[in-house]
Design a protein that fits this description.
The chain has 381 residues and is of the alpha+beta class. 59% of the residues lie in helices and 13% in strands. The protein has 14 helices and five strands. The strands form two sheets. A three-stranded antiparallel beta sheet has the order 1-2-3, with no helix packed on it. Strands 4-5 form a two-stranded antiparallel ribbon. A hairpin with a 4-residue loop joins strand 2 and strand 3. The longest helix has 37 residues.
Length: 381
């Protein structure tokens, strides 16, 4: 009885091991990368947080209690509103905010806000509130939450009485998407020009590489500022958005082009490339269907790491008043109000957009680090 059980017990691990090996050897490159990436918990969590942030950015009108441009008279530079659950008598009545009243400090000319315990405004969820145009097309008034007749500023208000949280959510649509659009534009330029340079070589390689060297020698920030300064002030928001995206993409493609060129110079002499040429495949097909797929893991990592640079570039230009301009909002334009040291000392919540910029850059770096490890062909599963 024991011998039979030993045989069964000894056969099971061998069978499971062979199955595991079989799954490993038949797995595609994408499946192997995904298996390694799942083991990088910090990168996986960062990726999920980024997905949530992009979802909030694309649907910010619903999550914002107010429109980004709405000014609340009498609530200028209001500090963050605390959410209460118990009234002054200690009774639980659910989430609510007290009414606010203020008085002017004659010594510092600063508004001092105090809570009115007699004015209780309950937080309502999935409620009809201030009307807005979802994506500029659909008339809607459904909001995730508001305080009814009261005012709720979870991250405070600015110098014009506008809700900082609503403006940060609205700004995230531009700041987050400009990184994606700009990186994919630079990815197209870098992969195409680098692929052509590495595949053909000769005079084409010399011309493309000299252009990349000249652009790489120009300091990025001064060039961005010079190009952004010539964008007309009277341009509409959409045209300015795409102009800034193109400006940010003018420099970031050079490093990718040189890396793609170096790899293709090595790969173009492989047997399967020679076989594709003999079979009559066109040069463009060989580059995009045979050469680049073998280098796709590096390209994905490069894109992930380049997005934070795009976001920081847009933030810097908008902070200097050369990027996205009002009435459009981005994280950079929101930080314009924090240029004055007295504003930062009196109203520190105006620096909240900087925390979103820092968090986004860190999250993308964590995801890029995880993808870099997952794409390493010599890393064990």
């Amino acid at each position: 009885m024991s011998s039979s059980s030993d045989e069964i017990g000894g056969a099971t691990p061998a069978t499971s091991l062979s199955n595991a090996e079989e799954r490993y050897y038949i797995a595609s490159q994408q499946q192997l990368i995904w298996r390694r990436f799942k083991r990088h918990r910090l990168a996986l969590i960062s990726g999920l947080v980024l997905i949530i942030m992009y979802f909030l950015a694309f649907t910010y009108e619903f999550w914002s209690p107010y429109r980004a441009v709405t000014q609340h008279q009498g609530f200028v530079n209001t500090p963050p509103t605390p959410i209460r659950f118990f009234d002054a008598a200690g009774n639980f009545i659910g989430p609510f905010v007290y009414g606010l009243k203020y008085e002017l400090n004659l010594d510092t000319f600063e508004r001092v806000y105090t809570e009115d315990p007699d004015a209780i405004h309950r937080i309502r969820f999935f409620t009809n509130g201030e009307p807005y145009r979802f994506w500029g097309r659909f008339e809607m008034d459904l909001h995730f939450f508001d305080a009814g007749e009261g005012k709720v500023f979870l991250l405070g208000s600015d110098g014009l009485g506008r809700d900082v949280l609503s403006r940060i959510l609205a700004a995230s649509r531009i700041s987050l998407t400009i990184g994606l659009v700009g990186v994919f534009l630079s990815f197209f330029l870098g992969a195409t020009l680098g692929g052509i340079s590495g595949f053909y070589g000769g005079a084409v390689d010399i011309v493309i590489m000299r252009i990349t060297e000249i652009l790489s020698a120009i300091p990025q920030i001064p060039l961005w500022i010079a190009l952004a300064a010539i964008v007309p002030i009277d341009w509409p928001v959409e045209r300015t958005y795409f102009a800034i995206t193109i400006i940010l993409s003018t420099m970031t493609w050079t490093g990718l082009a040189r890396a793609v060129r170096a790899k293709l110079l090595e790969m173009r002499e492989h047997d399967y490339i020679v076989a594709a040429k003999i079979a009559g495949a066109s040069d463009i097909r060989i580059i995009y269907e045979h050469l680049l797929p073998g280098y796709i893991s590096f390209l994905i990592v490069n894109i992930t790491i380049a997005i934070p640079g795009m976001i920081l570039g847009e933030t810097a230009l908008s902070f200097l008043g050369l990027g996205i301009r009002p009435p459009a909002v981005s994280w950079g334009t929101l930080l314009e109000g924090a240029q004055n040291i007295s504003n930062i000392a009196l109203y520190p919540w105006l620096l909240t957009p900087a925390l979103f910029v820092i968090a986004t850059v860190l999250l993308f770096n964590f995801v890029g680090d995880g993808l870099r490890d997952a794409a390493d062909p010599y890393k064990e599963l």
